[in-house]
Amino acid sequence: MKKILCVAVSLVAAAVAQAISFSDARAQIGACIADSAKMTATMKSLPAADQAAFLASVNEAIASMPGSNEAKAAAYLNANKAALRGAAKGNVATLLAEVFATVAPEALPIVSESIATDLLSRTADPTKTFTDEQFTKIAESAMKAVNERMSSVENGAARSAFAIAMLAQASGGTPADLTDRLVETLPEASREVARKEWIPAATGKDGAKNYEPMLGAADAQTAAPVQTVVLRLAGPQVLDSLLSNLVEGIEILSNLHTREFATSATETADTELMTPLPSEPIGYPNQL
After folding, report:
1. Helix (H, G, I), strand (E, B) or coil at 284
2. Does 238 or 139 have the greater pLDDT score?
3. What CA–CA distance (Å, rounded) separates 33 from 190?
């Protein structure tokens, strides 16, 4: 028992040692923008309650940086994806909302597409699969967080539409009515234009993707950066599925998460861990 207590105390002490204050994190913003690994590590060291505010501060710093649209878009891309990878348990949706609230509109097309492909795609992690119904619930839950955050942001509905386009891409095309259901989560005044103009253009429903209608509605101050240049400046992108993290907090899915979305090996481990403990201590074989 004493050994167990010592181990527990050591783990708590290590966790406390790794934690940093919000002011200390802000002092490292420049380093976080320059180094994705530093950004992820800093996010992991912050309490969940401070993570969104820190990400907003990072995006504010990127907005004020000198340089081309492409250089800034590359910085937004790397910093925001790194932040999502460092999200505390159950905090991915909150950070996604902060991404769409604080990244410059002109950078949102490439940031949202990269998140869809590398972090939220249903095929990003072949060991975990999601039915159309499950993915729809995940997407609707994510949009709830995004829309709540956008309620206090200028041109928030257009920014939310970028999130819808992202989730549509991450879905792989099914269910067919996903975008319609997500558009219904937008403020009523914006649903018609989103359904008829913004989303069809952004998802390439009638041809090549075109974000201009949404960029105009979001009041983008500059032209959209050249995607090929941004990706070259950003460097290789890491594939890291976060869909399972978005399940946290969705009651109908959270209780099923360890069984439905786990590998067979994990399922076996979960079953063993769920075996009830004996009510009384038991001895070794042949021991009275």
Report:
1. coil
2. 139
3. 34
Instruction: Tell me the pLDDT tens digit for each residue of 196-208.
Output: 999 999 999 888 9
Return the higher-pLDDT residue of 144 and 14.
144
173-189 burial, b at 16+ Cβ within 10 Å, e below that, comes to: eeeeebbeebbebbeee
Which of residues 10 and 98 earns the better pLDDT score?
Answer: 98
What rounded mean pLDDT belongs to the chain?
85
CA separation (Å) from 135 to 35, 79, 97, 131, 267?
32, 26, 18, 6, 21
d(C-alpha 99, C-alpha 112), whole Å: 9
168 vs 10, 111, 174, 213, CA distance in Å? 45, 14, 8, 17
State how far the Cα of 211 lies from the Cα of 191, in Å rounded to an integer. Answer: 17
Would you give the end-to-end CA distance of the chain in angstroms?
23
Sign of the dihedral through C-alpha 131, 178, 112, 147: negative
In the chain, % of residues over pLDDT 90? 70
Q: Which position has the token pair 């907090």? A: 249
Q: How confident is the model at residue 67 (pLDDT cuts 50, 70, 90)?
A: very high
Of residues 170 and 271, more confidence is placed in 170
Q: Are 118 and 237 in contact (CB under 8 A)?
A: yes
Half-sphere exposure in the Cβ direction for 34 (13 Å, CA): 4
Residues 6+ apart with CB under 8 A from 189: 157
CA 6 from chain centre, in angstroms, equals: 36
